[in-house]
Every structure is written in structure tokens, then in C-alpha cells.
Design brief:
By secondary structure, the protein is an alpha/beta fold. The chain folds into 2 domains: 113 residues, no CATH class; 154 residues, 3-Layer(aba) Sandwich (Rossmann fold). 34% of the residues lie in helices and 22% in strands. The chain has a 6-stranded parallel beta sheet, sandwiched between helices.
Length: 283
């Protein structure tokens, strides 16, 4: 029986990019003297795994530590790390290596969808080309369609407890609430309002539904400033009055409303290194 083939860096990079998970690509860009690997050698580091190698030894462990420290601190972007293989790395090679670290923070944004009904299905299908991580929740078991297994950056979660489901969301998540049950919708909105790090909250329904929810949520202790965080009905940006109420149309309208909220601000990992830094490295 053969041992499984180790995953090469390029396969791991493709998979992590596809799934929108945080990771770093380490590339040897220059080397002098005796070194473990040649320029162009690459390794991919995630929060829990390492793919391929830069030659092993203390030097490699230091590269991994540097990458994981940046991942833990959310330091996206490129940086140059210098390693003297007799100094910083304590190896006997005696060479010198410059490593380019490219840290990718993962998906640009996280969208939590609560409800796997008709509108939820259309929303998830429409988000497939977008660079978002999608967390799809439903309190009912076995309601997620088979095609979800083929969609990258999508996680389906059986979530019978609204409080626990909301507590598990990453900070900065955007949430859309559209379950099959009004009581569950209200419990989810209540839990979402208890967190001050949820980026936006959208609730499906009518103005009369929101009036009823608003009264109940106010009685539960949420003030006007908190309640103003909820958009209901969703998909009604800029004073729209509705129109086509098919699930597909509602999903399109809800996503159009979300796009500016999810943001497209320039990220550090998309800027690269300063030209002067590169010139100093290669001249």
C-alpha cells in the first residue's frame, strides 16, 4: 500500500484560494553561499498545515513562524524576510536567503445566510462567483441541496440553536435572516443585535412584520440605535417599493443592496512591495 502523495505547494495554494481560507506563500527570491533550496523554491503555510518545503531545518521553522505570526495578526500583504543561515537560523550552511512572504487573509468578506428555503437557495447560487465566504444555516436537518458540495467558500451548518449559531459567526460578518419561521427569525435578529461586531443585518419580510418585530425587540431591551441596524424588508435600497416577488428577484435585490455594504476597499495584500524595496533587493 503506497503512502499518500504529499500535496505540492501549487495545489495547496489553489485549494486555499478557492476556499477563501487564510494562508501565506513563501518564496525564496535570492540566495548566496550554501543554502537548502534555490531561488524559486516555494512553500504554502496555513494556520494548521504546511505544504512543500524550503529545505527543512531551523530556517524553515522560522519562515513558518513568521508566516503564522502575520496570519494571526491579520497582517495581509507582502514582506521580505532575511535569513542568515549561520546567524538568525543557527544552521551550519553559512549562506544567506531572502524570502518573500505573501499573506492572504482569505475571503474579502463573510456572509451568513439563515434559511435554506427558496430565497436562500437563490442567494447562495448567486454568491458563487463572488469572493465572499458564505456560511449557510438552517435549523432543519438535511435541507441543504447536493449541489452545495461543488461550491467553493461555502459552509453549510445545521443550526437548531439561534444563539449558538450567531455566537459562532466571525467578527465583521454580514447576516441575512430568512428562515421558514417568524419566531426563529426574531430570535436570530435578537441574537445578532446582542453583538456589536456584526457588520450588517438584513431581515426578509414586510413593513408590518418589521413593525411587529421592532416592538418585541424593543421590549427585549434593544434601543432605537440598535434597531436601526436592521434592514427590513431587504432588497429595498434607495426607496424601492418592491415589484417582482419571485425568490430569484428577491435574491438579486438583496445582493445588490449588500454589494456596497460588503465593501471593495483596497487591501494591503493587493498592493505589493514598494518599488524601492524591490530595487534594493535585486541590484
Amino acid at each position: 500500500m503506497h503512502a499518500p502523495r504529499p500535496t505540492p505547494w501549487h495545489e495547496a495554494l489553489h485549494q486555499l484560494q478557492r476556499e477563501g481560507l487564510p494562508h501565506a506563500l513563501a518564496t525564496v527570491v535570492t540566495s548566496t553561499g550554501s543554502t537548502p533550496r534555490e531561488p524559486g523554491a516555494r512553500m504554502v503555510i496555513s494556520e494548521s498545515e504546511v505544504f512543500d518545503t524550503l529545505g527543512g531545518g531551523t530556517f524553515e521553522f522560522q519562515v513558518i513562524d513568521a508566516a503564522r505570526e502575520k496570519l494571526a495578526q491579520g497582517e495581509a500583504g507582502m514582506s521580505l524576510e532575511a535569513f542568515a543561515l549561520g546567524g538568525r537560523s543557527g544552521q551550519c550552511c553559512g549562506g544567506f536567503v531572502n524570502v518573500l512572504l505573501e499573506v492572504f487573509p482569505g475571503s474579502a468578506a463573510t456572509l451568513a445566510i439563515f434559511g435554506a428555503g427558496h430565497v436562500g437557495n437563490e442567494l447562495v447560487r448567486l454568491t458563487a462567483p463572488l469572493p465572499w465566504r458564505v456560511l449557510w444555516h438552517d435549523s432543519r436537518a438535511d435541507v441543504f441541496p447536493a449541489w452545495t458540495k461543488e461550491q467553493p467558500r461555502l459552509a453549510c451548518r445545521h443550526a437548531p440553536d439561534p444563539q449558538a449559531a450567531v455566537a459562532a459567526l466571525p467578527a465583521g460578518s454580514h447576516a441575512l435572516v430568512l428562515t421558514h419561521d417568524h419566531a426563529e427569525d426574531r430570535a436570530l435578529v435578537d441574537a445578532l443585535l446582542q453583538r456589536d461586531d456584526i457588520a450588517s443585518i438584513g431581515l426578509i419580510g414586510s413593513k408590518s412584520k418589521w413593525a411587529s418585530f421592532r416592538s418585541r425587540l424593543s421590549d427585549a431591551g434593544h434601543d432605537d440605535a440598535a434597531l436601526a441596524r436592521v434592514r427590513c424588508p431587504i432588497g429595498m435600497a434607495k426607496g424601492g417599493t418592491g415589484g417582482d416577488k419571485t425568490p430569484y428577484a428577491i435574491a438579486i435585490a438583496a445582493l445588490a443592496e449588500l454589494l456596497p455594504l460588503m465593501g471593495n476597499a483596497e487591501r494591503a495584500d493587493q498592493r505589493g512591495l514598494a518599488p524601492a524595496e524591490l530595487r534594493a533587493l535585486f541590484t
